[in-house]
């Protein structure tokens, strides 16, 4: 075996052992004390989405993301990670989560907490849910019936996000009904843990007025996603046919900035009227856009959110829209600087 072959194997083993040391510490025996959701949002601050498409879930030896990346995220000026979970594919026919998958999640959560990061556990199977609302309800309920009690004693820095970007078959009415079902499941074991919930139509700010939340449950953080204008943020994105062949669309004109602020003012007005804190769970521009425009966009959106007292999480650490260059194992510095200036 050559040194080139031994090196990645040794690194994988070292990473695994590092995770095992932390997982052995366990969580506290009792459920955490209640944390006001507005205080939670202030503590969340700046964040980033992680691990959605990493091989770690099926083949840890091939993982791109490593435990040390949590420390880099924290040292890079971020306080929160939103862990994107496609858990439906890791459940058996009876709906039971794969123990190996769950152990991986346990280790990742504990490493993130050890590095003083807040953690949002985001069930990210919006595509399946958009196509089949009945299957979604079955599998989503099976998921939260296992995850909620499993993390019952986790610190209050761990939050649950019921479902990423409900859309398609989960229209406003269907989503309002389903979120009530899933929130009730969570509340059986986590009465005061803060739960992240967004509106239908891909967590669109324009659908906040249709979102129905239980008025007596004040441990809810409302999330929205922002990719306006899509012709800029998704130009060249093969998975969005109408924008797949677009290129050369810039961003940063006075009109662009005015539209951003008007859109965010609308969200802020809704939040004030309803007494709910806001978490901007996703935003960013696909890396087919020119870098200068991406920098202007990311800086403007992040500052606009902060000016209104919101927490935010950039989409995303790796894969596309990327903030971290895995080949060089370092930040994409212009994007990092735009998100966390003068750190």
Question: What does the model show?
Answer:
- Helices cover 43% and strands 13% of the residues.
- It has 343 residues and is of the alpha/beta class.
- Helix 11 links the parallel strand 7 (278-283) and strand 8 (311-314).
- Helix 1 packs across helix 4 (99-114), helix 10 runs parallel beside helix 11 and helix 11 packs parallel to helix 12.
- The longest helix has 21 residues, at 3-23.
- It is globular and about 50 Å long.
- The N and C termini lie far apart (43 Å).
- Mean pLDDT is 93; it is low at 1-26.
Task: Report a brief summary of the structure.
It contains 12 helices and 10 strands. By secondary structure, it is an alpha/beta fold.
Element pattern in H and E: HHEHEHEHHEHEHEHHEHEEEH
Give the low-pLDDT segments: 1-26
Helix content: 40-55%
The averaged pLDDT comes out at 93
Task: Quote the beta fraction.
Answer: 5-15%
Output the radius of gyration.
20 Å
Q: What's the tally of helices?
A: 12
How many DSSP-defined strands?
10
Shape: globular
Gap from first CA to last CA: 43 Å
Side by side, the strands of the main sheet go 1-2-3-4-5-6-7-8
The main sheet comes to: 8 strands, parallel, barrel
**What structural class should be given to the helix and strand makeup?**
alpha/beta
């Amino acid at each position: 075996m050559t040194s080139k072959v031994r090196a990645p194997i040794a690194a994988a083993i070292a990473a695994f052992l590092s995770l095992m040391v932390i997982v052995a510490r366990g969580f506290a025996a009792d459920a955490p004390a209640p944390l006001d959701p507005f205080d939670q949002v202030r503590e969340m601050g700046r964040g980033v989405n992680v691990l959605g498409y990493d091989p770690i879930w099926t083949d840890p030896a091939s993982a791109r993301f490593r435990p040390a990346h949590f420390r880099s995220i924290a040292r890079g000026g971020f306080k929160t990670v939103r862990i994107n979970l496609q858990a439906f594919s890791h459940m058996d026919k009876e709906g039971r989560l794969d123990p190996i998958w769950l152990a991986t999640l346990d280790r990742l959560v504990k490493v993130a907490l050890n590095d003083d990061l807040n953690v949002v556990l985001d069930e990210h199977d919006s595509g399946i849910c958009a196509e089949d609302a009945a299957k979604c309800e079955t599998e989503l309920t099976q998921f939260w019936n296992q995850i909620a009690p499993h993390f019952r004693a986790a610190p209050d820095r761990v939050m649950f996000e019921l479902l990423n970007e409900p859309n398609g078959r989960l229209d406003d009415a269907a989503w309002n009904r389903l979120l009530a079902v899933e929130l009730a499941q969570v509340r059986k074991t986590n009465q005061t843990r803060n739960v992240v919930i967004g509106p239908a139509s891909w967590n669109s700010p324009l659908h906040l007025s249709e979102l129905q939340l239980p008025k007596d449950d004040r441990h809810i953080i409302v999330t929205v996603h922002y990719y306006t204008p899509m012709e800029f943020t998704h130009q060249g994105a093969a998975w969005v046919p109408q924008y797949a062949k677009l290129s050369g669309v810039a961003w940063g004109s006075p009109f662009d900035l005015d539209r951003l602020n008007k859109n965010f003012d609308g969200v802020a007005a809704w939040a004030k009227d309803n007494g709910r804190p806001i978490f901007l769970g996703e935003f960013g521009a696909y890396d087919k856009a020119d870098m200068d425009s991406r920098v202007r966009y990311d800086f403007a959106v992040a500052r606009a959110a902060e000016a209104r007292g919101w927490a935010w999480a950039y989409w995303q650490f790796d894969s596309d829209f990327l903030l971290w260059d895995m080949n060089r194992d370092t930040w994409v510095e212009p994007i990092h600087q735009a998100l966390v200036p003068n750190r």
